[in-house]
């Protein structure tokens, strides 16, 4: 369904609706004074660092959109392997902000970016390239999608830090499913001696259910939709467990076929 394919302009209103809902949940969690310095599912990040991280990345998007609109020069993309250190530095640099200052600043940044995304027209949604600090030029639709990743997954991170049972919302997970293959591609880091493997992924349920054939090895990872019945191993997920597994938050999914192939594949990636 086109309204669940965030690469299409037809999905714009639906995507922004879901992003706003996830952001409000995040703001409610981050505004609790008792949680400000509480641990989260992100190693070495407290709730205040998640807020700082979102300020850091959102304000970097403003610089990127300004450069794309003006034709200005931007530094070369740093690459995804630099993200772990760069994002950690950016988040922790904002620790001196009080909770009120940080959450207020993030709310303002979020409102500004949503206005920018609302203003994107049909041609700009997929045809306007905006330089990402780490990944280089990307179509504009990636930026509200990145916000969904951040607000949806980092809300999960805060809840996980409480030790209480919880889950990921269906709408957020459904919209993110197609982008998880891109995330895997961007974080593939196999050793040079890694044996090439083929594996299938099935996402069962949700608006982006389907099956995909994946090849991975020293040269990277590629994927395409298709039947996985003839492959040596397959991984079955619901949308939420697929998103959380790809982000390295959980070891979920059901393996059928060759367990060694599946586990070799699942350990080809670095975490950001």
Describe it:
The chain has 272 residues and is α+β, with helices and mostly antiparallel strands. It has 2 domains: 2-167, dinb family like domain (Four Helix Bundle (Hemerythrin (Met), subunit A), Up-down Bundle); 182-266, SCP2 sterol-binding domain (Nonspecific Lipid-transfer Protein, Chain A), CATH 3.30.1050. Helix content is 49%, strand content 14%. The strands form 2 sheets. A 5-stranded mixed beta sheet has the order 5-4-3-6-7.
Provide the β-strand percentage band. 5-15%
The main sheet orders its strands as 5-4-3-6-7
Contiguous low-pLDDT stretches (5 residues minimum) are none
- Give the overall shape, derived from the CA principal axes: globular
- Give the CATH level 1 class of the largest domain: Mainly Alpha
GO molecular function: metal ion binding
InterPro entries: DinB/YfiT-like, Maleyloyr_isom, MDMPI_metal-binding
Protein name: Mycothiol-dependent maleylpyruvate isomerase metal-binding domain-containing protein
Organism: Phytohabitans rumicis
In short:
The chain is of the alpha+beta class and 272 residues long. Helix content is 49%, strand content 14%. Strand 4 (210-217) and strand 5 (220-225) form a beta hairpin.
Please write out the topology.
Layout: H1 12-30, H2 47-70, H3 83-92, H4 99-118, H5 122-127, E1 129-132, E2 136-139, H6 142-161, H7 170-186, E3 197-203, E4 210-217, E5 220-225, E6 233-237, H8 239-246, E7 254-257, H9 259-266
Parallel strand pairs: 3-6
Antiparallel strand pairs: 1-2, 3-4, 4-5, 6-7
Helix pairs in contact: 1-4, 1-6, 2-3, 2-4, 2-6, 6-7, 7-8
Domain Mycothiol-dependent maleylpyruvate isomerase metal-binding: 24-159
GO molecular function, one term: metal ion binding
Organism: Phytohabitans rumicis
């Amino acid at each position: 369904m086109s309204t669940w394919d965030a690469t299409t302009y037809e999905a714009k209103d639906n995507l922004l609706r879901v992003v706003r809902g996830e952001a409000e949940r995040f703001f409610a969690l981050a505004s609790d004074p008792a949680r400000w310095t509480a641990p989260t599912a992100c190693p070495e990040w407290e709730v205040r660092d998640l807020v700082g991280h979102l300020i850091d990345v959102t304000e970097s998007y403003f610089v990127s959109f300004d450069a794309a609109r003006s034709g200005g020069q931007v530094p070369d993309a740093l690459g995804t392997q630099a993200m772990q250190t760069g994002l950690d530095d950016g988040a922790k640099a904002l620790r001196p902000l009080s909770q009120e200052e940080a959450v207020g600043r993030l709310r303002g940044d979020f409102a500004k970016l949503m206005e920018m995304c609302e203003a994107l027209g049909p041609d700009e949604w997929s045809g306007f390239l905006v330089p990402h600090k780490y990944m280089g030029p990307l179509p504009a639709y990636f930026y509200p999608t990145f916000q969904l990743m951040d607000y949806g997954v980092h809300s999960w991170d805060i809840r996980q830090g409480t030790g209480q049972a919880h889950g990921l919302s269906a709408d957020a997970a459904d919209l993110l499913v197609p982008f998880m293959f891109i995330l895997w591609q961007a974080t593939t880091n196999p050793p040079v001696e890694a044996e090439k493997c083929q594996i299938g992924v099935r996402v069962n349920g949700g608006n982006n259910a389907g099956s995909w054939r994946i090849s991975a090895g020293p040269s990277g990872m590629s994927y395409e939709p298709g039947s996985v019945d003839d492959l040596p191993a397959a991984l079955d997920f619901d949308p939420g467990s697929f998103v959380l597994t790809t982000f390295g938050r959980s070891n979920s999914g059901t393996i059928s076929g060759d367990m060694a192939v599946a586990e070799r594949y699942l350990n080809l990636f670095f975490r950001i």
